Amino acid sequence: MTPNSRQTALFSATMPAPIRALAERHLYDPEMIKVKAATLTIDTVEQFFLETKPQDKVASLARVLEAERPTQAIVFARTKIRTEQLYRTLRDKGMNVKALHGDMSQGARDGVMISFKGGRVPILVATDVAARGLDIADVTHIVNFDVPTSPDVYVHRIGRTGRVGRSGRAITFIEPRQKRDLEAIEKHAGTQVAPWAEGAHVAPARTVEPPRRHRKPHDSNGAVDFAKLIASGGRAAGLAEADLIHAVTSQAGLDGEAVRNVRVLERFALLEVPAAEADRVAGAVDGTDVRGYKLRVEPARS
């Protein structure tokens, strides 16, 4: 077919009949070209899951990294706040680690990527958005600290390792309530994920990315009511959002994903936690020393 041809190509995998009829009515000798959706197949990655309670996830992450001793690893977290929190925790444990997320300036992100690609930083904690387009052949491990939101995301994440003929290892953390999420990933990605144990090995499983979109795996918890807490201090006391989230997660054992709508004002701060846990969380966090400031926390009464 040449540019001067009166023949027109219609690209479609499944073109609806009304659109096909419209095209045939107004186009000269249209020609149908079917385009097959691209798929991503991975068969060089050992895949594991580790079941852990929300309050034990950070300790489990440190244990996995120490046991696996990755040459280079990417730890995927769902949110920017969680990414920053994990980075600080691992750094404080003496690990050589950097964070990569969308709130960083382009210059800071470039600096992190140069260090990681150059092998000077072995562990990168990143969100999915920030890690798009990463193609580093030496990544040996992928850790899904937060369960991927779909099988497509799972396959894209673990596809960062096992490149250029190399083998890789992928470990996904599963909370007890998220077993159905793992089953959905196994079913739709056509793979099997084995329980993780130190020194464990399995044959790499063939994993195929489905050529269609998926809904997020079902969250069996359903809707959760949230209650507001008020904390003393604020910017005047040198507090930041990450400080408050760390105080709640470390003192009350609450999952970082359950702390939302954190707002740090000049003299106080507001945050929301599950309503059923509000009084307990306030009591556990009240009196905590944060950056030399004694935090006072109580439920906000309407």
Number of strands: 17
Biggest sheet descriptor: 7 strands, parallel
**For the record, what is the CATH homologous superfamily label of the largest domain?**
P-loop containing nucleotide triphosphate hydrolases
Content-based structural category: alpha/beta
- What is the count of distinct domains? 3
**Mean pLDDT across all amino acids:** 81
What does the model show?
The chain is of the alpha/beta class and 302 residues long. It folds into 3 domains: 36 residues, no CATH class; 168 residues, P-loop containing nucleotide triphosphate hydrolases (Rossmann fold), CATH 3.40.50.300; 74 residues, 2-Layer Sandwich (Alpha-Beta Plaits). The strands form 5 sheets. Strands 6-7-5-8-9-4-10 form a 7-stranded parallel beta sheet, with helices on both faces. Helix 5 packs across helix 6. It is globular.
Keywords:
3 domains, four-stranded antiparallel sheet, Alpha-Beta Plaits, single chain, Rossmann fold, disordered N terminus, seven-stranded parallel sheet, globular, 302 residues, alpha/beta, 23% strand
Question: What's the layout of helices and strands?
Answer:
Blueprint: E1 9-11, H1 17-26, E2 31-33, E3 41-42, E4 45-51, H2 57-68, E5 73-76, H3 80-92, E6 97-100, H4 106-117, E7 123-126, E8 141-144, H5 151-158, E9 168-174, H6 179-189, E10 194-195, E11 207-208, E12 226-232, H7 241-252, E13 260-264, E14 268-274, H8 278-285, E15 289-290, E16 293-294, E17 297-299
Helix pairs in contact: 5-6, 7-8
